[in-house]
Design a protein that fits this description.
23% strand; 3 domains; Amine oxidase domain-containing protein; FAD/NAD-bd_sf; 511 residues; Polyamine Oxidase, Chain A, domain 2; oxidoreductase; five-stranded parallel β-sheet; alpha+beta; binds flavin-adenine dinucleotide; Flavin_amine_oxidase; FAD/NAD(P)-binding domain; seven-stranded mixed β-sheet; 13 helices
C-alpha cells in the first residue's frame, strides 16, 4: 500500500494498520474516516504546528520529543535561585508573522501575547525616542517615527529613506547586505544605528554576512508592506507554560498523543522498488527509539533542527544530499542576560539600544508561582538580549554581567541604587541558522525524496528566516502535504499580510 495509508472503508487497509497498531478512528464533518496516526518527530514549534494543523483536520498524531518538555529552541527552564520559569531567551513575534498568530489562535494562546505599538529607542548618548506608527497609510505610517529619531541628522534620515525605497525593489541575490549598503552610499551612522540595529535583532547575524534578499524580507514584511507588520508581539507568560498547558491540551483533546522524553534513535527505511520501475520505492516504515522500542509508522514528519537531522537517518538514503547540504548551514548564537533587583530600574516594559553590547531589554512578567520562594525579593526581573553574540565567546558570566550593568546604568540611573539579587547568562550557541548569501539553496522542501516523509523546521524552505513564524510555516506546509496524501487536501498556510495600496503603487506586489 504505497505511502501506507488506510483510507475510508478499505478493509484491506484497515487490517494492515491494525497489524502495526497505529490504526485510529476519527470523525470528520459528515463522514467517518479511518486514518493512521501521523508520527511527528520533534516537539519544537515546527512539530507542534504540524501537529496542531493535522488534529485541526481530524487527523490523529503522535508527537515524539526527546527532551522532557515541548518548545525546542523556544522554551523555558526553572531558575533554581528565584524559582521562576525563565525562557532560554525572550522570544517576540511581529504582526507580519501571520502563521505564528494563526497557530496561537488555533491552540488558544493568542491572548497571552501582548502587542507593543510603542517602542523605546535609546540613542548612543542615552537619549530616548518613542517609536510609534501614525495613522498614515503604509509605508508612511512609520515616517514620522523615523524623523523623530534624535540621534540621526536630517540628511542621514533622507539617505535612510532613499535606501529603504530602493531596497523594496532590490533583486540581486549574490551580494551581502553590507556590500549593498556600500553601493547605496549609506552613512556610517545610519548603518550602525539603524540597519545594524534592526537586522542583528531580526536575523542574529552581522551585516557583512547577511544576504541582501534575507535583509530585504525583514524590511518589506516588517515596515513597508502593511501597517500592522511592525507591531511587536510579546508573550506575557513563560513559553513553557504555553506549550505544556493550552497547546498540549489542544492536541490531546483532538486525537493527539504527546510524548516527551522520547528520543528517536533511528528512522527505519525500506526500498520496495520494482527492478523495472523508474519510481523511487523508498518508504519510511518505523522508528527505533533511544530506549530500543520500535514504533511502526506510516506518514511521518521529521521536525528536527538542521544539525540533528543526520543523526537519525542511515548514511545511505535518499536524504543523503539534503543532510550534506543541511550541514553546510552555519549557526549563529544568541545570549540573554537575566537580572533580578530588589527594586525597579525602569518603568518601561522594554527598550531598544542602538549602540553598545545590549540590544533589547525586556521586563520580566511577575510570576505567581515564584512568590513562595525564599528569594522572592528578586521580584524585579529584566532580560537583556544580545543577538549574534559571538563577541561574548570565552568571557566569564561575571564579566558579561558587569558590562551589561555598566551600560544599563547609563540609560537607567535608578540601577545605581538597586541591589542585584541574582543574575545569569544563557547562551544558545546554535540559536538560528545564519541567513548568508547562498543559504537559501541549502534549504530543502518539506516533501522529502521519500514519499511518506515530510521535513519541517525553521531551516526548511519557507522563505522566512529562523523564527517562530518560519518554524510554524514549515509545520503547516508539511501538514498540507500529509493532508494531500491522505486525500483530505486543505489549505493550512495563512497568507502574508496584504500589500497596502500605496506600496503596491510604488513597488508592485512586493513578492
Ligand atoms: C536564544 C534564541 C532566541 C530567539 N529569539 C527569537 C525571537 O525573538 N523571535 C522568533 O521568532 N524566533 C526566535 N528564535 C528562533 C526560534 O526559537 C526558532 O526559529 C524556532 O523555535 C525553531 O523551531 P523548530 O521547531 O524549527 O526547531 P527546534 O525548536 O530546534 O525543535 C526541534 C525539536 O526536536 C527535538 N529533537 C531533537 N532531536 C530529537 C530526537 N532524536 N528525537 C525526538 N526529538 C528530537 C528537540 O529537542 C527540539 O525540541 C530564537 C531562538 C533562540 C535559540
Amino acid at each position: 500500500m504505497p505511502g501506507g495509508f488506510a483510507r475510508d472503508g478499505s478493509a484491506h487497509a484497515t487490517i494492515h494498520w491494525e497489524q502495526i497498531g497505529v490504526q485510529h478512528q476519527a470523525t470528520s464533518p459528515g463522514r467517518a474516516i479511518t486514518v493512521e496516526r501521523v508520527t511527528i518527530v520533534g516537539g519544537g514549534l515546527a512539530g507542534m504546528a504540524a501537529a496542531a494543523a493535522l488534529v485541526h483536520h481530524q487527523v490523529p498524531i503522535r508527537l515524539l520529543e526527546s527532551r522532557p518538555r515541548l518548545g525546542g529552541r523556544a522554551s523555558s527552564f526553572r531558575d533554581q535561585v528565584t524559582g521562576e520559569a525563565i525562557d532560554n531567551c525572550q522570544h517576540v513575534a511581529m504582526g507580519c508573522c501571520t502563521n505564528f498568530i494563526r497557530f496561537c489562535e488555533m491552540t488558544g494562546i493568542r491572548q497571552h501575547f501582548e502587542p507593543a505599538r510603542e517602542l523605546y529607542f535609546f540613542g548612543p548618548q542615552g537619549e530616548m525616542t518613542k517609536f510609534a506608527a501614525s495613522r498614515l497609510p503604509a509605508p508612511l505610517h512609520l515616517a514620522g517615527a523615523f524623523f523623530r529619531l534624535s540621534y540621526l541628522s536630517l540628511s542621514e534620515k533622507l539617505a535612510l529613506g532613499r535606501a529603504l525605497s530602493r531596497l523594496a525593489v532590490a533583486t540581486e541575490t549574490s551580494i551581502t547586505f553590507a556590500d549593498w549598503l556600500k553601493h547605496q552610499r549609506q552613512p556610517r551612522r545610519v548603518i550602525d544605528h539603524f540597519w545594524n540595529v534592526v537586522l542583528v535583532s531580526a536575523l542574529s547575524e552581522s551585516l557583512d554576512r547577511i544576504g541582501l534578499q534575507q535583509a530585504r524580507k525583514v524590511f518589506v514584511d516588517g515596515f513597508l508592506r502593511n501597517p500592522q507588520g511592525w507591531v511587536v508581539e510579546i508573550p506575557q507568560q513563560p513559553l513553557e507554560e504555553l506549550w505544556a498547558g493550552p497547546v498540549r491540551q489542544y492536541l490531546e483533546a483532538n486525537h493527539g498523543l504527546v510524548e516527551v522524553g522520547q528520543g528517536v534513535a533511528k528512522v527505519e527505511l525500506c526500498n520496495v522498488s520494482h527492478p523495472h520501475s523508474q519510481a523511487n520505492g523508498w518508504r519510511v516504515t518505523g522508528l527505533t527509539m533511544r530506549d530500543s522500542r520500535m514504533i511502526p509508522t506510516g506518514e511521518m514528519i521529521v521536525a528536527l533542527p538542521w544539525y540533528r537531522l543526520g543523526e537519525i537517518f542511515p548514511e545511505e538514503s535518499p536524504l543523503a544530499e539534503i543532510i550534506t547540504q543541511a550541514r553546510q548551514l552555519e549557526a549563529a548564537p544568541i545570549s540573554s542576560v537575566h537580572l533580578w533587583y530588589d527594586r525597579p530600574i525602569t518603568d518601561l516594559p522594554h527598550a531598544t539600544f542602538v549602540s553598545g553590547l545590549c540590544q533589547w531589554l525586556f521586563i520580566k512578567p511577575r510570576q505567581a508561582g515564584a512568590a513562595e520562594h525564599p528569594q522572592q525579593t528578586a521580584r524585579y526581573g529584566y532580560q537583556v538580549v544580545i543577538s549574534a553574540s559571538r563577541v561574548l565567546a570565552g568571557q566569564s558570566q561575571e564579566k558579561i554581567i558587569e558590562q551589561v550593568e555598566n551600560e544599563l546604568k547609563g540609560y537607567f540611573p535608578a540601577l545605581g541604587d538597586a541591589h542585584r539579587v541574582h543574575a545569569r547568562v544563557v547562551t544558545e550557541h546554535k540559536a538560528v541558522f545564519s541567513p548568508l548569501v547562498g543559504s537559501e539553496a541549502l534549504r530543502p522542501a518539506q516533501q522529502s525524496p521519500i514519499a511518506n516523509l515530510q521535513l519541517a523546521g525553521d531551516w526548511t524552505k519557507t522563505g522566512w528566516p529562523a523564527t517562530m513564524e518560519g518554524a510554524v510555516r514549515s509545520g503547516f506546509l508539511a501538514a498540507e502535504n500529509v493532508l494531500r496524501r491522505l486525500d483530505q487536501p486543505a489549505k493550512v498556510l495563512v497568507e502574508d499580510l496584504p500589500t497596502s495600496r500605496l506600496p503596491r503603487l510604488l513597488w508592485g506586489k512586493l513578492g
